[in-house]
Design brief:
alpha/beta, 3 domains, six-stranded parallel sheet, 19 strands, binds iron/sulfur cluster, OB fold (Dihydrolipoamide Acetyltransferase, E2P), pyruvate-formate lyase- activating enzyme, five-stranded mixed barrel
């Protein structure tokens, strides 16, 4: 039997797909292109409404003989909606049931009836060893925790990923050491609230984990996503003391208005957030930040929105993901009335994105003439003799070079746009 996995959503879903791929390969299945696969696995994302619709329309493309499994967040949250769509789905597998994927495949092969596997568990499940089938030979994702107890009023994650559970430090270190020994150049620690990791049943917290991981010989260590409400000052000390922890943090603010942050049930104010950013920058002057923002949360006034714009100006983010608020069923905010017209919300989103593009362009132009370290990620698909890499702050760098993927290069920056830098490899 052959399989194809279609992944929607964030790095956590990419990492889950890697684990599913490993489990299926262990059952003797082989990967194949979508058109030739006997089994299609749709690993889905439910964070916003529109991408979820795209997933339903993708699933509807396989009415024939192929078996279809919908897995992940949409599977967990929308079982009824999936079956109500009258598209052909053979199994719905929730976020805590990937461990059963092998036996589900056996059931389907034996002609079993459509079914669901949706139970949650509070215990960490060690699904695959470090050698999981990985999508990159350069960047290795390592899950350290999963789930969320925060219940931000707009967010569906606690309903799709369940409550927080934490992976033992020994297993995390084993996987990181495996990646280092196999030539990985970058480790990305994953978790919905990665900075809230703590040893199950123990006293060690995220700064302890990071301190220990910094001894693993990998040039860059990153972690996503950090919740500002869980920030501990010790994290800054650990980062400042270890040069292989990238000077970049994804630190979602969501809004620049304390009033809206309260309505979102976020456990920090604008001034708390800015104080943390300031502390990072005092300890590490080159520290860069990226963020997520929701525009048009119910009740957002013009003043609230202006506070978000001014936060962009103050923090000068490296990059920002921004979306118009989209109500998700079961969340508290779904009961709040949206009084702002759609056209106004769109205007605000464009204004935010334009403001951020100006900031990014200004900062990127400031790098022209400097020389930076770049991790080579892939050959440019359209330009012979060019490579695509990433800077320490996760900025895309296109540069003239024939350096091998996975190597680090010094690159002289010769040009800049809002979203990327251009350069040439520097040999002196
Ligand atoms: S911290 Fe808030 S936004 Fe992040 S996953 Fe948890 S509930 Fe969602």
């Amino acid at each position: 039997m052959t399989f194809f996995i279609k992944t929607f959503g964030c790095q956590m879903n990419v990492n889950d797909s890697e684990k599913i791929r490993h489990l299926l390969a262990a059952k003797g299945l082989t990967a194949a292109p979508e058109e030739r696969a006997d089994l299609i696995i749709v690993n889905s994302c439910a964070v916003r409404a529109r991408p979820q619709e795209k997933i339903f329309s993708y699933v509807g493309r396989f009415p024939g003989a192929k078996k279809v499994i919908v897995a992940g967040c949409v599977a967990q949250a929308e079982k009824e909606a999936i079956f109500a769509k009258k598209v052909k789905v053979d199994y719905v597998v929730g976020t805590h049931q990937f461990c059963r994927i092998g036996e589900i495949v056996d059931e389907l092969r034996a002609g079993g009836r459509p079914g669901t596997a949706l139970a949650f568990t509070r215990k960490w499940q060690e699904l695959v060893p470090g050698a999981a089938a990985r999508s990159s030979a350069v960047t290795g994702y390592v899950s350290v925790m999963e789930g969320c107890d925060n219940f931000c009023s707009y967010c569906i994650v606690p309903f799709t990923r369940g409550r927080e559970k934490h992976r033992p430090m020994a297993a995390i270190l084993r996987e990181a050491e495996y990646l280092a020994a196999n030539g990985y150049r970058e480790i990305v620690l994953l978790g919905q609230n990665v900075n809230h990791w703590h040893e199950p049943g123990g006293r060690r917290r995220f700064p302890d984990l990071l301190r220990r991981l910094a001894r693993v010989p990998v040039p860059w260590i990153r972690f996503i996503t950090s919740y500002p409400g869980y920030h501990e000052p010790e994290l800054i000390e650990v980062m400042a003391a270890h040069r292989n922890i990238a000077r970049h943090i994804h630190f979602p603010a969501q809004s620049g208005s304390t009033r809206i942050l309260k309505r979102m049930n976020r456990a920090y104010s604008r001034s708390d957030y800015l104080a943390i950013v300031g502390a990072f920058r005092r300890a590490m002057p080159g520290m860069k930040f990226s963020s997520d923002f929701i525009v048009g949360f119910p009740g957002e006034s013009e003043r609230d929105f202006r506070l978000t714009l001014s936060l962009l100006d103050q923090v000068e983010y490296e990059s920002v993901f921004s979306f118009i608020y989209s109500p998700r069923s079961r969340t508290k905010a779904a009961a709040l009335a949206q009084e702002a017209p759609a056209a106004l919300l769109k205007e605000r989103l464009i204004a935010l994105q334009e403001r951020q593009a100006v900031i990014q362009l200004r900062n990127n132009l400031g790098r022209v003439g400097t020389t930076i370290d770049v991790l080579v990620c892939e050959a440019h698909p359209k330009k012979a003799g060019e490579m695509i890499g990433r800077s320490e702050s996760y900025r895309v760098v296109n540069f003239v070079s024939r350096a091998p993927v996975g190597s680090f290069r010094r690159v002289k920056i010769t040009g800049a746009g809002p979203h990327s830098l251009r350069g040439v490899e520097c040999f002196s």
